[in-house]
Amino acid sequence: MEQELSVALYQHLLGLQDSRSSPEPPGAARELQLLCCDIDPELIRRAQQSSPFPASISFASLDFMDSGAREPFLSSYLERFGRSSFDIGFCMSVTMWIHLNHGDGGLLEFLALLASLCTFLLVEPQPWRCYRAAARRLRRLGRDDFEHFRSLRINGDMAESVTRILTQQCAMELVRSFGSTGWDRSLLLFKSASARPQGSG
């Protein structure tokens, strides 16, 4: 998740108007912690350097499909706050890249992982036309096609596919579809069907 979106999300959740209001707002800000991950270490480095809320927004370079790196990192992060899961996860324009690079099995694994980690989950799946555009860009560059592109059986209406996977295989419920973003992508909010408040017995 890019730095600007992460900061804007943090400000929105706290009702802040701009990052110049205070370097670390008091009160509720101490209770709100954001963990923002990207596979690109350079993006993470720049985000860390320019974050106006370094005590509340953590940026980490992480390949979510590498369980050897993911599991100890996320466990350690959650343990710092006495938690075993996140209240909400945001998956913005990520599903296509997981799908293209790890195939149908990778997409299923990724969505199941997010469902297991989050009480609520907001997903912005890239539509199938974005897959075709990404494949065309590779061909124009003279590079080999994505390894899994031509063998993907999960295709077509990706918002519908992601919804079906999360609701039928990952024990989540669709709370709301927010329509389309400026890039004509669906925003889908899900909730764990077995959600219980943190700390409940």
From TrEMBL:
EC top class named in words: transferase
Reactions mediated catalytically: a 5'-end 5'-phospho-ribonucleoside-RNA + 2 S-adenosyl-L-methionine = a 5'-end (5'-bismethylphospho)-ribonucleoside-RNA + 2 S-adenosyl-L-homocysteine; a 5'-end 5'-phospho-ribonucleoside-RNA + S-adenosyl-L-methionine = a 5'-end (5'-methylphospho)-ribonucleoside-RNA + S-adenosyl-L-homocysteine
Gene Ontology biological process terms, A to Z: methylation; negative regulation of pre-miRNA processing
Entry EC no(s): 2.1.1.-
Matches recorded under SUPFAM superfamilies: S-adenosyl-L-methionine-dependent methyltransferases
GO cellular component, as recorded: cytoplasm
Domain Bin3-type SAM, residue spans: 1-195
Locations listed in the record: Cytoplasm
Keyword Transport applies: no
Positions in coiled-coil regions: none
Single GO MF annotation: RNA methyltransferase activity
Keyword Cytoplasm: yes
Keywords in alphabetical order: Cytoplasm, Methyltransferase, S-adenosyl-L-methionine, Transferase
Function: O-methyltransferase that specifically monomethylates 5'-monophosphate of cytoplasmic histidyl tRNA (tRNA(His)), acting as a capping enzyme by protecting tRNA(His) from cleavage by DICER1. Also able, with less efficiently, to methylate the 5' monophosphate of a subset of pre-miRNAs, acting as a negative regulator of miRNA processing. The 5' monophosphate of pre-miRNAs is recognized by DICER1 and is required for pre-miRNAs processing: methylation at this position reduces the processing of pre-miRNAs by DICER1.
UniProt family annotation: Belongs to the methyltransferase superfamily.
Protein name according to UniProt: RNA methyltransferase
Organism of derivation: Chloebia gouldiae (Gouldian finch)
